[in-house]
Automatic annotation (TrEMBL), chain A:
GO biological process, one term: proteolysis involved in protein catabolic process
Location in or out of the cell: Nucleus
Keywords: Cytoplasm, Nucleus, Proteasome
Protein name: Proteasome component C5
Pfam families membership: Proteasome (PF00227)
One annotated Gene Ontology cellular component of this protein: nucleus
Domain of life: Eukaryota
Chief place where the protein resides: nucleus
UniProtKB/TrEMBL annotation, chain B:
Gene source species: Hymenoscyphus albidus
The protein's role, per its UniProt record: Non-catalytic component of the proteasome.
GO cellular component entries: cytoplasm; nucleus; proteasome core complex, beta-subunit complex
Annotated protein name in UniProt: Proteasome subunit beta
Matches recorded under PANTHER family: METALLOPROTEASE TLDD, PROTEASOME SUBUNIT BETA
InterPro entries, per database record: Ntn_hydrolases_N (IPR029055), Proteasome_beta4 (IPR016295), Proteasome_bsu_CS (IPR016050), Proteasome_sua/b (IPR001353), Proteasome_suB-type (IPR023333)
Keywords: Cytoplasm, Nucleus, Proteasome
Main location: cytoplasm
Family under the similarity heading: Belongs to the peptidase T1B family.
Keyword presence, 4Fe-4S: no
Any one biological process term the GO annotation gives: proteolysis involved in protein catabolic process
Keyword Nucleus: yes
Cellular localisation: Cytoplasm; Nucleus
Gene3D superfamilies reported for this sequence: Glutamine Phosphoribosylpyrophosphate, subunit 1, domain 1
TrEMBL record, chain C:
PROSITE patterns: PROTEASOME_ALPHA_1 (PS00388), PROTEASOME_ALPHA_2 (PS51475)
Localization of this protein: Cytoplasm; Nucleus
GO process annotations (BP): ubiquitin-dependent protein catabolic process
The species this protein was found in: Hymenoscyphus fraxineus
Lineage: Eukaryota, Fungi, Dikarya, Ascomycota, Pezizomycotina
Protein name in the entry: Proteasome subunit alpha type
Length: 264, 260, 294
């Protein structure tokens, strides 16, 4: 089982799904064996605002250098009562191994639906966030190989984003990028959403230098940030591209937007 | 001497030693499929205006040996859908039997409603995902072609890991590298596919089969091709690749008599 | 009844001194009260039909099917205790599926009848169970072509070992009736349930052994026979349910299916007309005979 983790692209080698080095037996011969994971590439991104949350993901699905599909969504509405999920109030994004992502989505969706029917009210993001963690940790020793982000509006109507690692460790954050281009997008977000490394000009020298004040961003600005983040990621990462799917959660409901990305 | 019934007819232990029954126990953990044995190569498919065209050659290879040359890798389901199988042939046969029993169970109900291609794809991908999660995979890459719940053309893929995706054109194995670019030329997106005529789609798929035969060493020139529309399935299982040209062969340098 | 008070009828699997198993005979009584079921073995297919006596006006018309699909090519119908019939079908489906998984080929009607006969017979042997309160009619079409083995690849040898034998014909229609004792015979025409005597008499008139009756006519005859058999039980309303299995070239392509609505309605119309004709017949016997000519 340890071989599974040595194949974590973040730990060694380039960030490509074909980085599946065959396990080597003690004799030095290459041993062919079944490896139950693959990486389908792509990236996701979530930003919460004062009264909204945006979760976005590209729609490319890859296997190695090949593009499986140009439209394979990674962002899903969760826990609605119809097949169109029109009345959902939660959004889940999954990136990594797509089959696990699909399985995780289906499972969470069923659980949130059951919660709604049993309690007569929709599940809160906070409750769903804890539940998702439990689901992921339940497969601690055969994990869902996905990075999940859950979004919605909290009890006060403020935007909420919860991000996860594959085995269920989670926290609520202002924003989070995940997947293949996470390392490209996250620093951009730190700078543009949380104003990291932005100082008030002339406010002082060295430690006296004052950080720019953190203010929540308006929705249209965040939308533009998301677009810029993905346009940039597409330029620099081969597994990201084709289309950008954005789900915007406000108290009015969930709005879905689709924008084309470069297909090269 | 041992006169008990279980010793009757057995060589005497004092003369021949105790019976070595070790072979009866299978020591160690349960073994599951680690690799495919007899395999089929690419499956290619393309959506068009009224349905889907899907094709696969009739070869099953045993390693590099062209072992079976009359293997039908396109399988009909309920006269509404076709599943094209790449990968292990015995696993394909297992899945085919599974679909057969599913079809029979469908017929128990009097409503006559059969599962559409989309339903079938969901079912198959769950079977595949379950088996990979048990570390006992069904070693196949498959394409499901037919119509969805709204009678619109449907085409989707599923593989041994349970990974699924859908696209206007799809190809498994070598086809993903060689045929898919050609198919994407004629149908870059859903809109383009929805304007393709049957003739255009057939031509593109047949051309893909030809390219695959040229360049995929595990392919052959006899193939099956199916057209699925709302009028049913037109499946031909003994097609022959035509009008091949080997004129390019003597231009290829780097092997054979022309080293440079 | 001679058995009453003797004690030999109280337990299954117990013979009476004169060699009878009363529990089985009581099961037959249960069958004799059920709605009439018939099956006709035609030259190009098999028809199954059942008279469903309407036990309540609250039942939805056309729902609550009594003829079941056992395998693609086989159907079954029974008279007697309906739940016993359901269990019969459930087991028959298991047998058919099991046969496929073992032999990779569909079960023949004959083999299914044999398996089910054995199953019903086992329910006469033990004191802990009771016999089935049904007589079942199993009909189907065994494919005249050599069917590909499930999941078969390739088409097999063209000649030599495993090749086709020229001039040999395979498959055909099959019709069997299985009784509570486990006894089963193959029939040209089978009838059971309340109206079986009338139905059998009608079936005998058809000369089915000649193998000339077409499936199309068989459907009409089946409908007529159910209507005629019901005539003795006129005070109760009934519904006709009919299924068929044709040969591979026929309308069902070897599958067991419901008879399509238009064909069923036409057959019922003819059946009713026939009955009216018979009634007129009786009336006109002493009246003027000219009316008949109309």
């Amino acid at each position: 089982m340890s071989a599974m983790f040595s194949q974590n692209p973040l730990m060694n080698g380039p960030n490509y799904s074909f980085n599946q080095a065959p396990a080597t037996a003690s004799g030095g011969n290459t041993e062919h064996s079944f490896y139950p994971y693959t990486d389908n590439g792509g990236s996701t991104l979530a930003i919460s605002g004062n009264d909204f949350t945006i979760i976005a993901g590209d729609t490319r699905s890859t296997s190695g250098y090949s593009i499986n599909s140009r439209y394979s969504p990674k962002v899903f509405k969760i826990g609605g009562t119809t097949s169109s999920q029109d009345d959902a109030n939660l959004v889940l994004s999954v990136v990594g191994f797509a089959a696990d992502g699909e399985a995780l989505k289906e499972r969470l969706d069923a659980i949130v639906k059951m919660y709604r029917y049993q309690h007569g009210k929709p599940m809160s993001v906070k409750a769903c966030a804890q539940r998702l963690s439990t689901i992921l940790y339940g497969k601690r020793f055969f994990p869902y190989y996905v990075t999940a982000i859950l979004g919605g509006l909290d009890e006060e109507g403020k935007g909420a984003v919860y991000s996860y690692d594959p085995v269920g460790s989670y926290e609520r954050e202002q924003c989070r990028a995940a997947g293949a281009a996470a390392s490209l997008i996250m620093p951009f977000l730190d700078n543009q959403v949380n104003f990291k490394n932005q100082y008030i000009p002339g406010s002082g020298e060295g430690h006296a230098l004052q950080e720019r004040e953190n203010i929540p961003l308006p929705k249209d600005e965040v939308e533009d940030l998301v677009k810029d983040a993905f346009d940039s990621a597409v330029e620099r990462h081969i597994e990201v591209g084709d289309g950008l799917q954005m789900l915007i959660i406000t108290k009015a409901g969930i709005e879905e937007k689709y924008l084309p990305l470069k297909k090269d | 001497m041992n006169h008990l019934p279980q010793a009757w007819g057995r060589p005497r232990d004092d003369v021949y030693g105790a019976y070595d029954s070790s072979y009866l126990q299978n020591g160690g953990p349960t073994q599951h499929t680690q690799r495919p044995i007899v395999t089929g190569t690419s499956v290619v498919a393309l959506k068009f205006k009224d349905g889907v065209v899907i094709a696969a050659d009739n070869l099953a290879s045993y390693g590099s040996l062209a072992r079976f040359t009359d293997v039908k890798r396109l399988r009909k389901f309920a006269e509404t859908s076709v599943v094209g199988f790449g990968g292990d042939v015995s696993d394909m046969q297992y899945l085919d039997r599974l679909l057969n029993s599913l079809d029979i169970q469908e017929a128990y109900g009097s409503s006559g409603h059969t599962l559409n291609a989309q339903n079938l794809h969901t079912y198959l991908s769950k079977v595949l995902y379950k088996r990979r999660s048990d570390f006992n995979p069904l070693w196949n890459q498959l394409l499901v072609a037919g119509l969805d719940g709204e009678s619109k053309p449907f085409l989707a893929a599923a593989d041994l890991l349970g990974t699924t995706f859908s696209s206007p054109s799809l190809a498994t194995g070598y086809g993903a590298h060689l045929a898919q670019p050609l198919l994407r030329n004629v149908a870059p997106d859903e809109e383009a596919a929805s304007k393709l005529s049957l003739e255009q789609a057939l031509e593109a798929v047949k051309e893909s089969m030809k390219v695959l035969f040229y360049r995929d060493a595990r392919s052959m020139d006899k193939y099956s091709i199916a057209v699925i529309t709302k009028d049913g399935i037109d499946l031909k299982e003994n097609e022959q690749l035509e009008k091949q040209s080997w004129a390019f062969a003597d231009q290829i340098r780097g092997y054979g008599t022309q080293v440079n | 009844m001679t058995s009453i008070g003797t004690g030999y009828d109280l337990s299954n699997s117990v013979f009476s001194p004169d060699g009878r198993n009363f529990q089985v005979e009581y099961a037959v009584k249960a069958v004799e009260n059920g709605g009439t079921s018939i099956g006709i073995r035609c030259k190009d297919g098999v028809v199954l039909a059942v008279e469903k006596v309407i036990s309540s006006k609250l039942l939805k018309a056309g729902a609550n099917k009594r003829i079941a699909t056992v395998d693609r090519h086989i159907g079954a119908v029974s008279s007697g205790l309906v739940p016993d019939g359901r269990h019969f079908v459930s087991h028959a489906r298991d047998e058919a599926a099991n046969w496929r998984s073992v032999y990779k080929t569909p079960i023949t009607v004959k083999d299914l009848a044999s398996r089910m006969g054995g199953y019903l017979q086992a329910y006469t042997l033990y004191s802990s169970v009771r016999p089935f309160g049904i007589t079942a009619i199993v009909g189907g079409w065994d494919s005249e072509l050599e069917l590909p083995v499930d999941g078969q690849v390739g088409s097999g040898p063209i000649s030599g070992a495993g090749g086709k034998v020229e001039g040999k014909t395979y498959g055909g229609p099959g019709l069997y009736m299985i009784e509570p004792s486990g006894m089963y015979w193959g029939y040209y025409g089978a009838a059971t349930g309340k109206g079986r005597q009338t139905a059998k008499a009608e079936l005998e008139k058809l000369d089915l052994a000649a193998g000339k009756l077409s499936l199309e006519d068989g459907v009409k005859e089946a409908a007529r026979i159910i209507y005629v058999a019901h005539a003795d039980n006129k005070d109760k309303e009934f519904e006709l349910e009919m299924t068929w299995i044709s040969n591979l070239d026929g309308p069902t392509k070897g599958r067991h299916e419901e008879v399509p609505k238009d064909i069923l309605e036409e057959a019922e119309r003819l059946a009713k007309k026939h009955l009216e004709g018979e009634e007129d017949d009786e009336e006109t016997k002493d009246d003027d005979k000219d009316k008949m000519e109309e």
